[in-house]
């Protein structure tokens, strides 16, 4: 989908800041369309510089109201018109003032009233909004419609004065408030002069049974809010006076309501405010459930890790009491394998998400393996590469495979002189690779891992093929022996 820059590049003198201003306007103007029950089209003049007359205009954005039927079944974005074809747009550009007193004109089956608003930024008209409404629906407006239109006029005037969109609004409109969820109009003192039916329903849900109009909004909200022990009660009241751009949330047993406060400015003076309401009760409930589930999952991982460590300690104790060297060695190997799984769960229990920072696990695996090696003081280890974060589905079997390969290299693959162990890991996005190398004598001639009676290598082969869906190759040359593990990253 084309952007504003695509339509104006090389055809308009707009600067990057001016284009950014138009993007900010478009990001917030669903509110304007809904309040005025109108389709809005943003036109940018096509000209050489800001002082020359345009040759025409290009439509760079179009928004339809959710409060009324659209008058444009098809988007007009990208449509161009010549200068003089739409006098109201020309007049708004040249006068830098809103053109309102226009006569309805036929458009298909409707009589449509067009009004135009100049978009002012840094004292320049950088665009023109054309607002299109069905004039038949304007004859007997309800109280809601009258208030919405008056608020819309205030906001359009702010656009023509360069004070809307609000500067530095940041994440205030994320998610963007919607007119249909509830709207309150405040006078200059913060007193409610109008509340839409949905806004009154929201207050009823919170426990306010009387009419909200005529009351200070801040006092009403403060009386309903369940204030946290670490919160200041006056924050709610001050945030809902309408004096500044604010987002305030109140909660009690009836639910949670989010308030977005938008001051209305005229000629630099505040004349009141509008407050958009959003019932976020269900959203907050789901967030709390997610937090609880996340904490529960971390606690489960923590308990699994502790249980594995307990099993490991029991096996280690049993190994010390067994006189048979073979049985004792088997139990110690089991201890080592359980410790590898425990390391993965330890990382998961402290992680903020469901991934495993595997490079930290690998560091621990290497350290643990060295502690068990009788020749650790003579070893030279070279470690290169990073794997980053992995899913637990991959991390657990990979930890076991690497543990077995390192242990096999330490036990069988070290030369008397060199004592060199290499660990290289890499990722190319879709495939991960781990290479364990040593300077030992290598595998005997005719060695085949599929028929080897070595339990550790059988574990490696099974996990590589079944869990990692990868391949393992064992290579011996004159300089070193390498175990190369390759598997997909997802």
TrEMBL record:
Known EC number: 2.7.13.3
GO molecular function per UniProt: ATP binding; protein histidine kinase activity
Keywords carried by this UniProt record: ATP-binding, Kinase, Nucleotide-binding, Phosphoprotein, Transferase
Histidine kinase domain boundaries: 299-490
A matching Pfam family: HATPase_c
Catalytic reaction(s) noted: ATP + protein L-histidine = ADP + protein N-phospho-L-histidine
InterPro entries linked to this entry: H_kinase_PdtaS_GAF_sf, HATPase_C_sf, HATPase_dom, His_kinase_dom, PdtaS_GAF, Sig_transdc_His_kin_sub2_dim/P
PROSITE patterns the UniProt entry points to: HIS_KIN
The protein, known as: histidine kinase
Source organism (scientific name): Candidatus Planktophila sulfonica
Organism ancestry: Bacteria, Bacillati, Actinomycetota, Actinomycetes, Candidatus Nanopelagicales
């Amino acid at each position: 989908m084309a952007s504003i820059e695509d339509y104006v590049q090389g055809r308009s003198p707009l600067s990057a800041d001016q284009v950014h201003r138009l993007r900010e306007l478009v990001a917030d103007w669903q509110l304007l369309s809904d309040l005025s029950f109108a389709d809005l089209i943003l036109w940018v003049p096509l000209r050489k510089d800001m002082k020359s007359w345009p040759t025409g205009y290009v439509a760079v954005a179009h928004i339809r109201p959710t409060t009324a039927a659209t008058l444009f079944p098809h988007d007009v974005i990208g449509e161009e018109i010549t200068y003089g074809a739409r006098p109201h747009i020309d007049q708004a550009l040249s006068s830098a003032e809103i053109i309102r007193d226009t006569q309805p004109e036929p458009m298909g089956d409707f009589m449509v009233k067009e009004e135009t608003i100049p978009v002012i930024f840094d004292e320049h008209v950088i665009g023109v909004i054309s607002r299109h409404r069905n004039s038949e629906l304007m004859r007997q407006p309800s109280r809601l419609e009258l208030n919405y239109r008056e608020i819309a006029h205030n906001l359009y005037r702010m656009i023509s004065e360069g004070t809307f969109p609000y500067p530095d609004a940041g994440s205030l409109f994320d998610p963007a408030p919607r007119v249909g969820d509830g709207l309150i109009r405040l006078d200059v003192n913060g007193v409610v002069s109008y509340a839409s039916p949905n806004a009154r329903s929201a207050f009823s849900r919170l426990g306010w049974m009387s009419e909200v109009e005529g009351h200070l909004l801040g006092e009403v909200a403060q009386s309903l809010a369940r204030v946290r022990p670490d919160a200041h009660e006056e924050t709610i009241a001050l945030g809902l006076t309408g004096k500044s751009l604010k987002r305030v949330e109140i909660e009690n047993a009836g639910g949670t309501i989010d308030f977005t406060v938008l001051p209305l400015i005229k000629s630099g003076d505040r004349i009141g405010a509008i407050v958009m309401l959003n019932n976020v009760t269900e959203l907050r409930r789901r967030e709390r459930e997610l937090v609880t589930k996340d904490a529960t999952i971390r606690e489960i991982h923590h308990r699994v890790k502790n249980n594995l460590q307990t099993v490991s300690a029991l096996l280690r104790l049993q190994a010390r009491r067994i006189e048979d060297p073979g049985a004792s060695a088997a139990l110690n190997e089991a201890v080592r394998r359980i410790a590898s799984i425990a390391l993965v769960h330890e990382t998961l229990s402290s992680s903020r998400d469901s991934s495993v920072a595997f490079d930290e696990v690998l560091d621990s695996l290497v350290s643990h393996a060295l502690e068990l090696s009788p020749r650790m003081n003579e070893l030279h280890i070279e470690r290169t590469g990073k794997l980053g974060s992995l899913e637990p589905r991959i991390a657990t079997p990979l930890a076991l495979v690497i543990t077995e390969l390192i242990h096999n290299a330490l036990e069988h693959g070290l030369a008397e002189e060199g004592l060199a162990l290499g660990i290289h890991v890499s990722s190319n996005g879709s495939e991960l690779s781990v290479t364990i190398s040593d300077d030992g004598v290598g595998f005997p001639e005719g060695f085949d891992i599929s028929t080897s009676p070595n339990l550790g290598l059988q574990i490696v082969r099974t996990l590589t093929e079944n869990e990692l869906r990868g391949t393992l190759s064992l290579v011996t040359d004159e300089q070193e022996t390498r175990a190369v593990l390759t598997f997909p990253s997802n």
